[in-house]
Structure formats: C-alpha cells, structure tokens
Design brief:
Helices cover about 25% and strands about 35% of the residues. With about 130 residues, it is an alpha+beta fold. The N and C termini lie close together (about 10 Å).
C-alpha cells in the first residue's frame, strides 16, 4: 500500500460578487484573487501550515456555486433580508494541513475576516491522505 499522512481540511464557504462568479464559470480562476471578499480569506488559507504539500505550497481547492438561505429574526444578513429566501454566489475554498498542526490563530483570522453574520467554516476530523512513497 502507498504511504500516507494524517491530515485535516478546513473549508470556507465564501460569498463572491456576481461578476466574480461569472468570470469563474467562464474559466478565469484568478477572478477569486481579485474578489474583495474572497481574496483576504484566500490569503489566510495560503498561510503555512495550511496548504502545505511539501514541494508544493499554498495548495487551495476552489469550488463554485450558490448558497441558499433565509435569514431569521435577529439575523444581520450581508445579502438579502430577514424572512426572505436568498441565493448567494459562493465559492468553497479548501486547504489541507497536517492533522497535528496548530491552526487556531489562522482559524480565528478566517472568522474575523469572514463577512457573514454566521460564517460557514468547517474543519474535518483527521483522515489519511495517500502519498507516494
């Protein structure tokens, strides 16, 4: 069997401007680096030890789509209005890191930089990543 290492991933669901999403769909992944909301979050996800693959650094996965939501009472939505269903152009930025790495400061920085009233940032349980021996 191949070698492996124990890792976690951190996924940040991030709103982007509609022109950014259109550019991404049209094949311009660099548009996320120019987006006022996504760029600061991307910069944090590119900070070691996040995205460290040995010979490759700043490894970040990018997925595009929409997030649907309906803000309830007490919400302070960045987009939409309380009680109304909305769709936000959204990207999912994912970085993998060593399962034992201390990323608390980076996680706190992601929370501070995220514009949503309730940021959606998920951290996985440790899992084995296969690597070539």
């Amino acid at each position: 069997m191949s070698d492996s290492r124990w890792v976690r991933d951190i996924r940040v669901y991030c709103p982007v401007a509609r022109p950014t999403l259109a550019a991404l769909i049209a094949g311009d992944p660099g548009a996320v680096e120019r987006d006022a909301t996504a760029a600061p979050l991307l910069a944090i996800l590119r900070t070691p030890p996040l995205g460290d693959f040995g010979r490759y650094r700043e490894v970040v996965e990018l997925a595009i789509g929409y997030e649907g939501f309906r803000p309830g009472e007490g919400a302070v939505p960045t987009l939409g209005a309380v009680g109304e269903a909305s769709w936000s152009p959204t990207v999912i930025l994912t970085a993998i890191y060593d399962a034992e790495a201390d990323v608390k400061a980076l996680a706190d920085a992601l929370l501070a930089a995220h514009p949503w009233d309730v940021p959606v940032i998920a951290v996985s349980e440790p899992y084995r990543l296969l690597v070539r021996g």
